[in-house]
Write a structure and sequence with these properties.
Strand order of the largest sheet: 1-2-3-4-8-7-6-5
Structural class: alpha+beta
Order of helices and strands: HHEEEEHEEEEH
Shape: globular
Number of strands: 8
Length: 182
């Protein structure tokens, strides 16, 4: 019973770590949360549960922060129904998180594509997997090292071509109109 509770807390805390770092977040807020999470990942909570341990690296170019790379070992991935080592690369531009790439060291591209095809089948357009509101999209690809990977980006120029962007804006408006009453 204790191990089931621990596994549940582990999974919930892993999910909450990802969900707190979003595209559009300022670098200052991101680094503050990251340092807080990293510090707490090394200590026990009041219930004796250790945080999810990870390491991170800051990448700089011409005195500007360009990437923050997080490395997790043996992570339980609910959405992908798997366990894998994960590298998360936060691409930074103009002091904001612009793009997030997840590289799964134990999962092939085909496995991720199969799950995404099932989950996003009604929102898959030209190989892009869109969020329900069409504001974000994911691309599944094979990394240079041969691992399965996903990049999350905003559905905007220059990520999407002009003609495709026009179609996506129409879908965003349609979604917005359908959800205004809620």
């Amino acid at each position: 019973m204790k191990s089931i509770l621990f596994a549940g807390l582990f999974i919930l805390s892993f999910q909450s770590l990802f969900s707190q770092f979003d595209i559009g977040m300022s670098v200052d807020d991101f680094l503050y949360l990251l340092k807080f999470k990293h510090k707490n990942s090394k200590s026990m909570d009041p219930y004796g549960t250790k945080g999810i341990s990870f390491e991170y690296e800051l990448k700089w170019k011409e005195s500007k922060l360009t990437n923050v790379i997080l490395n997790y070992k043996n992570s339980i991935l609910i959405d992908l129904k798997a366990k894998s080592d994960v590298i998360i690369n936060y691409g930074i531009e103009d002091n904001l998180i612009e793009e997030i790439t997840f590289t799964y060291l134990d999962l092939p591209k085909k496995y991720i594509e199969r799950l995404f095809d099932q989950r996003y089948m009604d929102r898959k357009i030209y190989g892009f997997y869109f969020s329900e509101d069409y504001k974000f999209f994911r691309v599944v690809f094979e990394s240079n090292d041969g691992y399965g990977a996903i990049t999350l980006s905003k559905a905007e120029w220059p990520y999407l071509g002009r003609y495709m962007l026009d179609d996506i804006r129409k879908l965003q408006e349609k979604y917005k109109k359908g959800h205004q009453e809620e």
